[in-house]
Request: fold
Amino acid sequence: MKLRQLATGLACVGATLALPPAFAADPILIGASITQSPPGSVVQGTQVKDGMEILKDMVNAKGGVLGRQIKVLYEDNQGIPEKGRAATEKLISKDKVVALAGGHQSSVCLAEIEVAHRYKVPYVNTNCWSDDVRKRGYPEVFNTSPYNTLVSSSMATTLATMGVKRVVAFAENTDYGIGQAKLTGELLKQKAPNIEYKYETLDRASKDFTAAILPLRANPPDVIVMSMLPPAAYIVMNQVYEQGLAPSSKTILYDGGGLADYPDFWQNVKEGGKYLLSFALYHPAMPQTQLAKDIAAEYKKRTGSDVNRLVLQAADSLHLVIEGIKQAKSTEPDKVGAAMRTMKFESLRGVSNFSTQQGYSFQQWLDIPFVNYELTAEKQPVGQTVLIQAPGQKFDPAKIVRPK
Amino acid sequence: MLRLSLDLLANGLIYGCFYALMAVGLAMIFGVLKIVNFAHGEFFMIGAYTYVLVALNFSVSPWLALPCAAIGGAALGWIVERLLMRPLYAGYASWGFMKDEYAVVVTFGLSLLLVNLVDKVVGPYSYKGPALIETSRFALGPVMLTGQKAIATVVAVFIMIALALFLKKSVWGKQIQAVAQNRLGASLAGIDATRTTSLIFAISGMLAALSGALLAPLVNPSPDVGSFPAIKSYVIVVLGGMGSVWGAMIAALIVGVSEAFFSVYGSYDYRDAFGLAILVLVLLLRPQGLLGQKGRDV
Reply:
């Protein structure tokens, strides 16, 4: 009897152990290799993460995708290409992510897309502007990010329209900076061959740029173009202002990197930021979807700052992956990639159409909306700036305000 | 061209003064312990952040925030010596066993720790420090200056003069010189070498922190702001003569001015390489540096 009871008990225990455990559906993993510590741009990495987290929370609050929650796995690449490569390798091979998004520094993107291409995992380029990312022609890489040809072409048109004679560009020593400065010069030569243009490469790790600025005092140019990112860009702006070079009645400072968007812009440039002419990818005057407005409101609630283009770009890149999963009705990377290639995608900033032409436009959303605006007062919010070129309109140089 | 040369000379001398503040502290540490402190750039960073955060968060005058930065730097220097450097002369490493390796690993690790700690605690955004004087820019003859550059240079020069007098005239200064010459001999003469070493680290930290605070309105501190002056400091200390305070001061001015001129009249792209080229030449032709002394093993 006792033996029978023991045997029955053991059988029950064994049967229970043999049953598969009951648990909630596993989340869908999406990888993001971003900069979260120096020497790379932690400011950018923070904004990318903010944008992706907000969209992820919104999607999960509505039940997720295919009945599963979305989880974004972040890896810190420190802005170093080798670390980006290792981070991407880990996300794909160990964490088995469905896709990757969040890349925001061109040098790192160029290393990471090699890994994504090898494993055939979709990679959404969030903010890598260098045309070289597209020129590689990898079918796994989807570019919702602005690109240097767009920016340089617009800037060249602006400079030609302004009717200036001499332009000097300060470019940071990265794929983005040198690429943009070089391309702006080439395109400007086609549009206005009589404009004298040269660019100076500056070390983004340096803190003193007076040696590059001082020689310009004797013969100031009409426009100084900035193809640089913070914090070096802030120092250049301050030192250009301290030397009395720009802004002035003769010389305008023209930014091609969206500096005024950054939350720490005014606390770093103060009076040096007045009269800055800016090529911009976000302005409250632009048409926005309801989702974009919701993200803007949530960002303001969480951080106290106004939304900017990088936060929206980051949300957009995650949005593309989620839509791809929905369309594919699958989380297999190759099926998600195939869906992303053929589906119609309404991004937060407009309907996007990925080009299939090889070169800088390969799988690039070509018609990214942009504006040109000018800051005319210290601590001026972007929404109150003077629109020199409204969305879809021509650049109007008569609207430029110059210091007296 | 004359105006440009005057601009470059003024700019080179101004930045040379700030580099001198950094380099002198490093020279003092080497003079006593014969090690290089790879976290010296982070003392600069801590000083810059202390100045900016005290001035902005507590709404105090920048002139009050400056001594706060100095105290912060001194305290950090004292803590580093007490907790990390003491084994160099009070533990197994004092026997000479892997002393240099210990110093490199510990100070390099400290550097990484401080950069990432500030990044996580304060945040990644840079902060332009408040200027000591509100005059944004003015012309001094053909040279354009800012109030901050002018006043910060005066303060830096004053600090260096005060330091020179302190080392030469005060009892503590003489003790520092004695320990630098011969630690054992100084101990036998009744000088507390351990306390003197603590004082040196505190002074070194204070000088680097002051350099950071004075430059904060000009370089917009971010967590990795310490790397650029640190590299310059290593070059300056070797050029001036390892352990020579006066050598470091003179070398700093030479490096500041020559880099400014070479950047414009030579090549801007290779200006950092120029400083390193000078270093190589000095090491080949005069290895002890400008004012250093030739060493010998006994």
In short: Chain B has a mean pLDDT of 87. Chain B has one domain: 2-285. The interface with chain A takes residues 3-4, 7-8, 11, 15, 115-116, 119, 124-128, 136-137, 144, 146, 149, 215, 218-220, 222-225, 227-229, 259-260, 263-264, 268-269, 271-272 of chain B (CB under 8 Å). The radius of gyration of chain B is 19 Å.
